[in-house]
Write a structure and sequence with these properties.
The protein is an alpha+beta fold. The protein contains seven helices and ten strands. It folds into three domains: 42 residues, no CATH class; 65 residues, Dna Ligase, domain 1; 89 residues, no CATH class. Bound molecules: iron/sulfur cluster.
Length: 220
């Protein structure tokens, strides 16, 4: 059992692993990957099972239980976060000098956004993001061609001179835009971007670009 409240289980047999959510969502639909990632507690279980270190801590399904656990974390750098939100919503990083009132406020803010909250040790380190296309991991950080990738990097404080931001909000996974999924937010979108799913174009040096207007994407 990965997450009883989320009806998420893992099945293993004959060397094969299958993640199943709500009985019907399996690897037969690649959407299960997004479902795994949107549940941070499940993501940590998957990482740990793969031998990767995930932050230690605890999961709470009741606010009073979490709020009463301050002594467990006092004097340590911790992160308090909703289990299923994205974009840093409701996430609080507390220093070792944080008091109980600050901790309780962070717990309350996190529970306002989700029924499950994680309190974890803060782990120093760099964050890496991978872009996988067609089952292969592609280089992302050097010379990105896709408008969305470029905008993401323009938002990164280590790389951007001025933080650009990306207009709009990310659509829910269950209501993706037609055509190119980025078209409502893409500054280079043309009328046909809302209709046609962009083909995956091969670029030199093993790169690839899924954009219906590569001429505009590549000149910038
Ligand atoms: S296909 Fe259109 S909307 Fe999508 S990234 Fe290219 S230009 Fe932007």
């Amino acid at each position: 059992m990965l997450d009883a409240a989320d009806n998420f289980i893992v099945l293993r047999r004959d060397g094969r692993t299958e993640y199943v959510k709500q009985a019907t969502r399996t690897s037969a639909d690649t959407y299960v990957s997004a479902l795994l990632m949107e549940n941070k507690a499940v993501t940590k279980l998957v990482l740990t099972a793969a031998g990767l270190r995930a932050p230690g801590g605890a999961r709470y399904d009741h606010e009073t239980e979490a709020a009463g656990d301050f002594a467990r974390y006092a004097g340590r750098r911790i992160v308090v976060k909703p289990n299923a939100t994205n974009f840093g919503e409701g996430v609080a990083l507390l220093g070792a000098d944080a008091g109980e009132a600050e901790y309780r406020a962070a717990v309350t803010a996190a529970f306002a956004l989700d029924r499950t909250v994680l309190v974890e040790e803060f782990v120093e380190g760099r964050e890496f993001r991978f872009l996988v296309i067609g089952g292969a991991t592609r280089a992302v950080l050097d010379r990105p061609a896709h408008p969305y990738t470029r905008l993401l990097l323009a938002c990164h404080p280590d790389r951007a001179v001025e933080l650009a931001g990306i207009p709009g909000t990310v659509p829910p996974a269950t209501a993706q835009p037609s055509g190119c999924r980025f078209h409502p937010r893409c500054p280079q979108a043309q009328a046909d971007c809302a209709v046609a799913v962009p083909p995956l174009l091969a670029l030199p040096e093993g790169r690839a670009l899924a954009c219906g207007h590569p001429e505009a994407a590549l000149v910038q």
